[in-house]
């Protein structure tokens, strides 16, 4: 039984180690391929892709671009092949193939059909979308292909850069790693036999069972800081003293677990600081716009509060469940104050005009949606990766679109309008109705709610109106807080 348990432990630890080793090695190579593909995509002139395909090396700039691509490939220690293709039907036309001169590749204009592994991604590639790395088994071996689209100024994908990394080396080194694991654990095996069954039961099996139990609990804790801290405390309470490798293993695991928990805590603090800085930027930008508009007192605060009520109501009712994630809720609520950021470009004479706007002035006011979108897109380009500013862009650009398609700036309708913008539309109009303006008094809340209800299915998403009407008590609290006369 002791030998069987020990052997099981060896197998479990070996499998976990091999799996983690392979995963890390594979992720490193995929990351390197993605970085190489993106770097290569950045140097290709999208406007000359068609000319490169037609004229090849005779086209001006082709040779220079190819030399830069070769340098990029040489700078990577893992990328095996680097080529550029223009997607067409179920294959691609070669733009650049760095192995063409060696007889192993293809020249510009050559049409090749994609491997079977690419079939699930053909539609996305035809549309010019980003795709995840593709794992396939070519004649040359086990390969992962990372791609990067080359887009022109209009955002149209002209071609894809493909970087291949081979996993054959990873698979080969995996066996060496596994052999080392087996050899290391074999020594542990010998010690168990020498000390005997009883000694093993007291000083090895029981301590290892405790370690494994808390290590597994540590893994299951994920990123829950409280659960991780509690697991580390319980692990240290084992207080194992066996004067052998088990004790060394125990202390190493304790130190490793403690270091990981502290590192996670530092990362969380840095993340919180970054979020606070981002929130500060939002409030600063929103206040900058609001201070220019003399007629929108506390508009930013109230609309943000109404947005929070609506999005939480949608989640509670189970509406748009695939869209409304905790991240979506956080992004929408945090970026709601930026929905009118485009008004920064509206002249003061139009923005604060005391009387009714002319048709020309109204057209100027309507441009704040496009201006807001452009401002947010510039910010998104500056801050790379997924972030809350994408929802800020959607709200800034489309919060005046209507469910029936009669809104502006693009006349979107129904669920084509981004969900965050449909939520903001209800919050924005309700606040406008219940707030006094130079051209109108504030409507009573009952009248404003009635007007919102009447526009469900016409101006507004019916589901957003439904959850808003069900949260009247919360709405009254917000109105009472900011509108002292209501």
How would you describe this structure to a colleague?
The chain is α+β, with helices and mostly antiparallel strands. It folds into three domains: 165 residues, Beta-Lactamase; 73 residues, no CATH class; 190 residues, Hypothetical protein af1432 (Orthogonal Bundle). Helix content is 60%, strand content 9%. A six-stranded antiparallel beta sheet has the order 3-2-1-6-5-4. Strand 1 and strand 2 form a beta hairpin. Helix 12 packs antiparallel against helix 13. The termini are far apart. The model has no long low-confidence stretch (mean pLDDT 83).
Secondary-structure map:
Blueprint: H1 2-43, H2 49-55, H3 62-75, E1 79-88, E2 91-97, E3 111-113, H4 122-126, E4 134-138, E5 141-151, E6 157-166, H5 168-220, H6 225-237, H7 245-292, H8 299-317, H9 326-335, H10 348-351, H11 359-366, H12 368-382, H13 389-398, H14 419-433, H15 445-454, H16 462-469, H17 472-482
Antiparallel strand pairs: 1-2, 1-6, 2-3, 4-5, 5-6
CATH fold-level name of the largest domain: Hypothetical protein af1432
The string of secondary-structure elements, in order, is HHHEEEHEEEHHHHHHHHHHHHH
Rg to the nearest angstrom? 31 Å
The count of β-strands is: 6
What's the helical proportion of residues?
55-70%
Under CATH at level 1, the class of the largest domain stands as Mainly Alpha
First and last CA, distance: 78 Å
Structural class: alpha+beta
Name the CATH architecture of the largest domain.
Orthogonal Bundle
Shape: flat
Low-confidence stretches: none
Number of helical segments with 4 or more residues: 17
The order of strands across the largest sheet is 3-2-1-6-5-4
Question: How many distinct folded domains?
Answer: 3
The profile of the biggest β sheet is: 6 strands, antiparallel
Overall pLDDT level: 83
**Beta-strand fraction estimate:** 5-15%
Which homologous superfamily in CATH is the superfamily of the largest domain? Hypothetical protein af1432
């Amino acid at each position: 039984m002791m030998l069987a348990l020990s052997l099981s432990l060896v197998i479990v630890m070996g499998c976990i180690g091999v799996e983690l080793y392979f995963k890390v090695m594979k992720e490193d190579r995929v990351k390197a391929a993605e970085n190489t593909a993106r770097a290569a995509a950045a140097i290709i002139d999208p406007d000359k892709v068609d000319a490169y395909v037609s004229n090849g090396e005779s086209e001006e700039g082709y040779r220079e671009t190819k030399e830069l691509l070769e340098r990029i490939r040489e700078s990577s220690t893992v990328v095996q092949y680097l080529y550029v293709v223009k997607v067409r039907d179920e294959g691609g036309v070669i733009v650049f193939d760095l192995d063409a001169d060696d007889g192993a590749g293809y020249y510009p204009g050559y049409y090749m059909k994609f491997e079977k592994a690419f079939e699930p991604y053909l539609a996305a590639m035809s549309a010019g979308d980003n795709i995840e790395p593709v794992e396939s088994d070519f004649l040359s071996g086990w390969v992962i292909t990372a791609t990067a689209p080359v887009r022109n100024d209009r955002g149209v994908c002209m071609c894809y850069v493909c970087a291949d990394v081979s996993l054959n080396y990873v698979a080969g080194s995996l066996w060496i790693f596994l052999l080392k694991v087996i050899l290391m654990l074999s020594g542990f095996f010998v010690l168990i036999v020498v000390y005997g069954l009883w000694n093993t039961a007291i000083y090895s099996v029981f301590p290892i069972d405790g370690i494994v139990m808390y290590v597994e609990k540590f893994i299951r804790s994920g990123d829950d800081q409280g659960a991780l801290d509690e697991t580390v405390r319980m692990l240290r309470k084992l207080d194992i003293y066996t004067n052998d490798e088990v004790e060394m293993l125990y202390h190493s695991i304790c130190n490793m677990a403690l270091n990981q928990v502290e590192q996670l805590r530092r990362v969380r603090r840095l993340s919180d600081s970054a979020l606070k800085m981002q929130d500060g930027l939002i409030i600063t930008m929103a206040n900058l716009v609001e201070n220019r508009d003399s007629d929108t007192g506390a508009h930013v605060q109230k609309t943000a509060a109404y947005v929070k009520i609506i999005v939480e109501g949608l989640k509670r009712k189970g509406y748009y469940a695939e869209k409304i994630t905790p991240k979506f809720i956080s992004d929408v609520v945090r970026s709601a104050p930026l929905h009118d950021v485009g008004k920064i470009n509206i002249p003061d004479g139009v923005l604060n005009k005391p009387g009714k706007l002319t048709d020309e002035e109204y057209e100027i006011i309507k441009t704040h949606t496009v201006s807001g979108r452009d401002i947010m897109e510039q910010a998104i380009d500056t801050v790379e990766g997924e972030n809350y500013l994408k929802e800020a862009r959607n709200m800034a650009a489309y919060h005046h679109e209507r469910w029936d398609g009669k809104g502006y700036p693009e006349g979107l309708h129904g669920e084509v309008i981004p969900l965050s913008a449909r939520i903001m539309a209800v919050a924005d109009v309700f606040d406008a109705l219940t707030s006094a303006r130079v051209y109108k008094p504030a409507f009573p809340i009952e009248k404003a709610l009635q007007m919102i209800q009447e526009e469900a299915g016409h101006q507004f998403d019916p589901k957003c109106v439904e959850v808003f009407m069900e949260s009247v008590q919360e709405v009254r609290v917000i109105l009472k807080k900011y509108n002292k006369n209501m």
